Amino acid sequence: MYYFLRLTRALDERAHVLQQQNKVVGGLFSNQGQEAISIGSAFALEKRDYVAPMIRNIGTVLVRGHSARDIMTQYLAKATSPTRGRDNSQHFGDVERTGVVAYISMLGTMVPVMAGMALGARLKGEDRVALTYIGDGATSTGDFYEGLCLASVQKLALVVIIENNQYAYSTPTSKQSLLENLSDKAKAFGIPGITGDGNDVLEVYRLAKRCIEDARAGGGPQILELKTFRMRGHAPHDNQAYVPKGLIEAWRKKDPIGRFEAVLGFGEAEKAEVGARVAAVVEDAVKFAEESPLPDGKEALQGVFEDDSIVPFTPWWRRDA
Ligand SMILES: Cc1ncc(C[n+]2csc(CCOP(=O)(O)OP(=O)(O)O)c2C)c(N)n1
Questions:
Q1: Ligand 1 neighbour 91 (Cβ under 6 A)
Q2: What are the pLDDT digits (tens) for 189-247?
Q3: Three-class SS of 185-242
Q4: Is the beta carbon of 168 within 6 A of some atom in ligand 1?
Q5: Could you read off the pLDDT of 71-87 as tens digits, one per residue?
Q6: pTM across the whole model
Q7: In the chain, what are the domain boundaries?
Q8: Considering 242, 252, 277, 318, which one is annotated as catalytic?
Q9: Domain 2-296, what architecture?
């Protein structure tokens, strides 16, 4: 867990440097301060389970078996990336190999999609839990409610982790909901809802494990709200000027990596040993991504539809023909 916390943080820091160098194509969404949620919950899943990450769940995909090269080639939109340069950011997965269901940008959507994954598994007689994450802001979407309505009455093995990082863009959670704990939204569906400390990786693991096992045992969908803080802006363009003074510093003291180091009793030697391993993996990923070719534009529409002959518009390379 400690290795993955450090790797996720290091990839995020390096991606921001690459973004400043104009090398990142498209959006960059930091997960700094939130890493424990992805990593603790991914450790609590079984290999056969399904998981749909969101933009800030890099740690989840790494734990599930995707590589640092996958992450960096996606950021740089290279031909060697999992989406072969078709999509920037981290919209990728591999249902067969890692159980990661590629997500889309429309907030809330992955709740009904993962309800469908859980239903599909049940119909096939497979013992699989489906887990997804959702931001505090995205719990205001219709899809969140529609997905959980279906999942609750069908008693689907679905776990929804609300990653309450206090802000949706510049909108504080208090402007999204009057609830103190967003896990209380579970009452609307008659399902269990609990809240925990999202900056304590062992607490995340313990609570996620409980929810996953309850869902697996037939207890139906579970909501787990984990409180944390988004330590950077929504994306690099956002300087967080709307965050009250002192709040970021207060949360920095609760940094999930520092807290876990204290639990582990790690001194400088242990930290440096893992740091060196992480640095080598990040260096390799950046080098590989930078040396990889950009995708050929002619391939852009391949794999978009099941039938590659379906082209929704005349692309530029066919216009002169
Ligand atoms: C349905 C929908 N509405 C609006 C957006 C634009 N949008 C992207 S991220 C974001 C804020 C999300 O906030 P939250 O759900 O709290 O997640 P966080 O960014 O804090 O991780 C918005 C409004 C979107 N992607 N989808």
A1: no
A2: 999 999 999 999 999 999 999 999 999 999 999 999 999 999 999 999 999 999 999 99
A3: HHHHHCCCEEEEECCCHHHHHHHHHHHHHHHHHHHCCEEEEEECCCCCCCCCCCCCCC
A4: yes
A5: 999 999 999 999 999 88
A6: 0.95
A7: 2-296
A8: 242
A9: 3-Layer(aba) Sandwich (3.40)
